[in-house]
Design brief:
With 429 residues, this protein is of the alpha+beta class. It has helices at 49-58, 86-98, 117-129, 140-150, 196-210, 223-242, 266-290, 311-321, 334-341, 399-409; strands at residues 3-8, 12-19, 22-25, 35-36, 38-42, 45-48, 63-65, 77-79, 82-84, 106-111, 136-139, 159-165, 170-178, 181-191, 248-255, 258-265, 300-304, 325-327, 357-359, 416-418, 421-423. The chain is 32% helix and 25% strand. Residues 347-429 have low confidence and may be disordered.
Length: 429
């Protein structure tokens, strides 16, 4: 029987299949094996992935992103005028992935290690709504450990820590490889509101600050402005990724009445990042301590998630712990591949899987949810939903955009405009 393992991440969804003992990624997009974790409803039909992302660009009210951040929250999300719980939206995302799997496939789903019975039951309910029936569940750090063990990079008896910096959250856990499989020991730790999306926001805030209030003068009801802001956000993501290899980038800004570039250097991005990375290291320390261990007791720190490939991340983790870091060429696929392999391969026997790369941090390295409680979140305890677009700041098209515009207007202004290029811009505190 074919096994399909699905990793429903905050920003990216990945899947892998296992057939005849061999694991391989499932292609969910024309451009990459993974697809955006985005759902939308258009004309009564549900869309997922790239199609949903395009629909949201045209109409921000027709769908939702970052659904995993709201999983277990009793406050519904409004889509096309109707309320939907996060578990229902996860079900639609899962249903889309299942269309790529052979009929009758056994399904494995991954989840954060600190999810308790309440959220795990909701995940099973979402699977039933999607038509899965019974599913096997495995925690994300355990799946990551299986992936590296199956490739022969970890051995039975070793203990590792996973440092998972994904698109929307950071998670840290300690895993011991036993003859019966991986076992999470101690208490997983994490940050709910720090991941690749937040790093993108730092880049976007840098651009907004350098433009000195220009974005606040634009009309967000203009479709061209909305498209331009969406394009600018994509350029900020591309700039973040490029700064893993380059020392500086130029971010094009093309909006109605505005055609320019903003410069950002790697040191500026790293300077803005370091306070948040210090928070991740503190969470990693807590996870290790909760297992009754010191960093020196670990065989390695396994880096998971696309944002973990930013060079300064591996540099800081290695320097902080004194342990080698290990990562895979496709960090977004590690959890899904390991989850698929967990159904067949013993952890001490290498299986057919692409080999990860072990590395000490270098400047040449290139980019290729934890919750305090598992009980239902009340409206009072729920993080505030994204506000309506501000009349005072009409160019803001999301909560993050409004934050960046407000920050720019409260004094984080910098740079001077020369020949259509904004130079000397740094994110000031």
């Amino acid at each position: 029987m074919t096994v399909v393992a699905i990793d429903l991440g905050t920003t990216w969804t990945a899947a892998a299949s296992l057939e005849d003992g061999s694991a391989s990624p499932v292609s969910l997009s024309d451009r990459h094996p993974t697809m955006p974790s985005v759902v939308a409803r258009v004309g009564g039909d549900w869309l997922s992935g790239d199609a949903a992302a395009r629909a949201l660009t045209a109409d921000p009210t027709c769908g939702a992103r970052e659904v995993k951040r709201r999983f277990g929250d009793t406050t519904p999300m409004i889509i096309d005028g109707e309320p939907f719980g996060a578990e229902r939206l996860q079900a639609e995302l899962l249903r889309s992935v299942l269309t790529t799997a052979p009929a009758g496939s056994a399904v494995v789903l991954t989840h954060p290690a600190n999810w308790g019975d309440y959220k795990l039951d909701l995940l099973r309910d979402a699977a039933r709504v999607a038509g899965c029936g019974e599913v096997t569940l495995i925690s994300e750090p355990a799946a990551a450990a299986v992936h590296f063990a199956a490739a022969g990079r970890l051995a039975v008896g070793e203990r590792i820590a996973t440092y998972d910096l994904g698109g929307g959250t950071f998670d840290a856990a300690v895993v011991e490889l036993t003859a019966d499989g991986p076992m999470v020991i101690g208490t997983p730790e994490g940050l709910e509101r720090f991941g690749g999306l937040d790093i993108d926001q730092l880049v976007f805030a840098h651009v907004v600050a350098c433009l000195d209030g220009v974005l606040a003068e634009l009309d967000s009801s203009d479709p061209q402005v909305r498209e331009g802001i969406a394009r600018l956000r994509s350029e900020c993501t591309a700039a973040k990724e490029a700064l893993s290899a380059d020392s500086e980038v130029s971010i094009p800004v093309v909006l109605p009445g505005l055609d320019t570039e903003v410069r950002m250097t790697r040191s500026e991005l790293e300077g803005a990042l370091r306070p948040r990375l210090d928070d991740t290291l503190a969470a990693l320390d807590r996870a290790i301590a909760s297992a009754g261990l010191n960093a020196s007791d670990l065989a390695a720190i396994v880096l998971v998630g696309g944002s973990s490939r930013i060079p300064v991340v591996s540099e800081l983790v290695s320097a902080h712990t004194g342990r080698p870091t290990r990562f895979d060429a496709e960090p977004k696929l590690v959890v899904a591949m390991g989850a698929a392999l967990s159904t067949a391969a013993p952890v001490d026997a290498p299986a057919a899987v692409s080999s990860p790369t072990d590395t000490e941090p270098t400047r040449e390295t290139t980019v290729a949810e934890s919750t305090p409680s598992d009980a239902p979140t009340t409206a009072a305890a729920t993080p505030p939903a994204a506000p309506h677009r501000s009349a005072e700041h009409p160019a803001a098209t999301s909560e993050g955009d409004e934050e960046a515009v407000r920050g720019a207007e409260s004094g984080r202004r910098c740079g001077s405009r020369r020949r259509g290029r904004w130079r000397g811009c740094g994110l000031r505190r």
